[in-house]
């Protein structure tokens, strides 16, 4: 399998954690999201992923999967242990809910292309963009703070898809110095993830294309 990756992408970070937890080795191709106007916008990559986003996972049969949550669910089927979607249907739904709260509600509003539109098309200042970023991260994490039950991961002793989505969002918050003092449970989960070998191996700073 071939993973189209970028070290700083929160979505790609999620998939790297899943691969590390499951011990699945893949070939990697790095898609720089800024250099040369963004490699993800080039025709060759758009033919793989028409959304021009990372990650994408190209299977050995030539099929390409997109969207990090879908890829993680595929990997959970491909290699059932450790389980990232709990067997218990209620815990599975809760884990997916937190994962989607990040992937659908928080992360897209701070995505590179959204911020570029605010800056370049709507003429927003850097301060306005910083305020925008902080607003949606805070709103989303405030809800997640109430949804999770750390023990010590979001929903128990083992990481689930919820943790795979939350940890990269916390990296994003740290990168932009967004304070998280109001979210002790979220921060506790983040500390647990930071100490886990798979999360460390997947961290942006540990990637070959890190800058």
CATH architecture of the largest domain: Up-down Bundle
**What percent of residues are in strands?**
5-15%
| Order of helical and strand elements | EHEHEEHHHHHHH
Unreliable sequence segments:
none
Largest sheet: 4 strands, mixed
So what's the overall shape? globular
Could you tell me the radius of gyration in angstroms?
17 Å
- The CATH topology of the largest domain corresponds to Glutathione S-transferase Yfyf (Class Pi), Chain A, domain 2
Mean pLDDT: 97
Count of separate DSSP helical elements: 9
- Order of neighbouring strands in the sheet with most strands: 2-1-3-4
Structural class: alpha+beta
Q: What's the helical proportion of residues?
A: 40-55%
What's the CATH class label of the largest domain?
Answer: Mainly Alpha
Number of strands: 4
First-last Cα distance:
25 Å
- The figure for the number of domains is 2
Could you describe the 3D structure shown?
Keywords: Isomerase. This is Maleylacetoacetate isomerase. Residues 1-83 form the GST N-terminal domain. There is one protein chain. By secondary structure, this protein is α+β, with helices and mostly antiparallel strands. The chain folds into two domains: 2-82, 3-Layer(aba) Sandwich (Glutaredoxin), CATH 3.40.30.10; 89-200, Glutathione S-transferase Yfyf (Class Pi), Chain A, domain 2. The protein is built from nine helices and four strands. A four-stranded mixed beta sheet has the order 2-1-3-4, with helices on one face. The longest helix is centred in the middle third of the chain and has 22 residues, at 126-147. The radius of gyration is 17 Å and the shape is globular.
């Amino acid at each position: 399998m071939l993973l189209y990756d970028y070290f700083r992408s929160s979505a790609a970070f999620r998939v790297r954690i899943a691969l590390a937890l499951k011990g699945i080795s893949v070939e990697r191709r790095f898609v720089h999201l800024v250099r040369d106007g963004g490699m993800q916008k080039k025709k060759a990559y758009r033919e793989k992923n028409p959304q021009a986003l990372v990650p994408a996972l190209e299977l050995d049969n030539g099929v390409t999967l997109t969207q990090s949550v879908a890829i993680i669910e595929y990997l959970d089927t491909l290699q059932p242990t450790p389980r990232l979607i709990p067997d218990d249907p209620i815990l599975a739904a809760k884990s997916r809910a937190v994962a989607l709260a990040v992937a659908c509600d928080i992360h897209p509003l701070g995505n590179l292309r959204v911020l570029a539109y605010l800056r370049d098309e709507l003429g927003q200042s850097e301060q306005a963009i910083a305020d925008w970023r902080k607003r949606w991260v805070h709103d989303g994490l405030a809800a997640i703070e109430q949804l999770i039950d750390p023990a010590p991961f979001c929903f128990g002793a083992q990481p689930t898809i919820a943790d795979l989505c939350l940890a990269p969002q916390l990296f994003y918050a740290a990168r932009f110095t967004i304070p998280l003092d109001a979210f002790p449970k979220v921060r506790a989960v983040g500390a647990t993830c930071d100490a886990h070998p798979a999360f460390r191996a997947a961290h942006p700073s540990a990637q070959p294309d890190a800058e």
